[in-house]
Design goal:
362 residues; alpha+beta; Pdz3 Domain; 2 domains; six-stranded antiparallel barrel
Length: 362
């Protein structure tokens, strides 16, 4: 093949390539015009329900910013411990959030969904339940309170929705199901919250204090914690049940604090009871002059090492661990009596014990 033939072949190839490129540019499927919008069908029933929940509840969900001398607000802290979520509780401007969001705060501010910012003051805290109530000092208009539901009839598997400010990203909604009920959640005070709701609804730092809702848009819990090695959502979140919230919040509004019902005992840990093969709450000692002391409840004999009394029931309800006892005392309330079932050696007996507010004496 001679050189002249190769040159002709190259020229022909170039012409064909140019013609092909021109045809591609002029083809209908390479048009630079905007494509027509495909008409979508109607939203599904589930989508419409989700949208309705968000549009109805989200205006009542607020961002809570807490400033302290040790942790001033900054851009970096917006998604951390100084920023959380809250929601409007009533028409008097009370906002519910988590205690750990506002603890040690010197200045509190609320940002509404509209973007309006208002100062707030602390009304009261309940560290035993990780709950706090704020009051909005001034706002042009208040969103409606979030509707209250019930946590006593919740079922594992039913839908759950969270609206909040994860990582400072306001007005975020996530959905999932109720994964488990009757969880126990330790608090910073050393006590446990009983009957806690577990959900796989995405909850992240910044969601703390926000509402957990059912499919009717009613409050069923206050998101409070996550279980995650990374600190971000891992599908295990917890919420304080609304039945506790609905009991605690009015008390905080009235008195700024919640009584800590007790009978004045020091109990052995659950691990100790398990090692000893004992079912119930082992009384280590009673506080001098306490209701338990006056009722004759006996602690461990330190001289011999023999067990004293083991609490096995309260008002007829079985007590397997300390949280069972404290939960029952909280339901009965300070200022009333409780029938305590005791086991001492091979004997069992019942005693009536006064319930007092042990928080007053601490």
């Amino acid at each position: 093949m001679n050189r002249r033939y190769l040159v002709v072949l190259a020229v022909v190839a170039a012409i064909l390539a140019a013609m092909t490129l021109s045809n591609i540019r002029n083809a209908p499927w390479t048009s630079s015009a905007a494509r027509s919008v495909e008409q979508r069908g109607p939203l599904s029933d589930a989508e419409r329900a989700n949208i309705e929940i968000f549009e109805r509840v989200s205006p009542s969900v607020v961002q809570v910013a807490a400033q302290s001398a040790a942790n001033p607000l900054s851009e970096e802290s917006e998604g951390g411990g100084s920023s959380g979520t809250g929601f409007v509780w009533d028409n008097d401007g009370h906002v519910v959030t988590n205690n750990h969001v506002v603890q040690e705060a010197s200045v509190l501010a609320i940002r509404f969904a509209s973007g309006e910012v208002a100062r707030a003051e602390l009304v009261g805290t309940a560290p035993n339940y990780d709950l706090a109530v704020l009051r909005i000092r001034s706002a042009r208009t208040l969103p409606p309170p979030v509707a209250i539901g019930s946590s006593s009839d919740l079922k594992v598997g039913q839908f759950a929705f969270a609206i909040g400010n994860p990582f400072g990203l306001d007005q975020s909604m996530s959905s999932g199901i109720i994964s488990a009920l009757k969880r126990r959640l330790p608090t910073s005070t050393g006590r446990e919250i009983a009957n806690v709701i577990q959900t796989d609804t995405a909850i992240n730092p910044g969601n703390s204090g926000g509402p957990l809702l059912d499919s009717a848009g009613r409050l069923i819990g206050v998101t409070t914690a996550i279980l995650s090695p990374s600190g971000s959502n891992a599908g295990i979140g917890f919420a304080v049940p609304v039945d506790i919230v609905n009991r605690v919040v009015p008390e905080l509004i009235r008195n700024g604090r919640v009584p800590t019902p007790g009978i004045g005992i020091v109990a052995a840990s659950e691990a100790v009871a398990t090692r000893l093969g004992t079912e119930g709450v082992i009384v280590v000692r009673t506080a001098p002059g306490s209701p338990a002391d006056r009722a004759g409840i006996r602690g461990v004999d330190l001289a011999s090492g023999n067990l004293g009394d083991v609490i096995t029931a309260a008002d007829g309800k079985p007590v397997h661990r300390l949280s069972d006892l404290t939960d029952q005392l909280e339901q009965i309330g300070a200022g009333k009596k409780v029938k305590i079932s005791l086991k001492r050696g091979s004997e069992t007996r019942d005693v009536d014990v006064d319930i007092v507010d042990i928080g007053r004496t601490q």
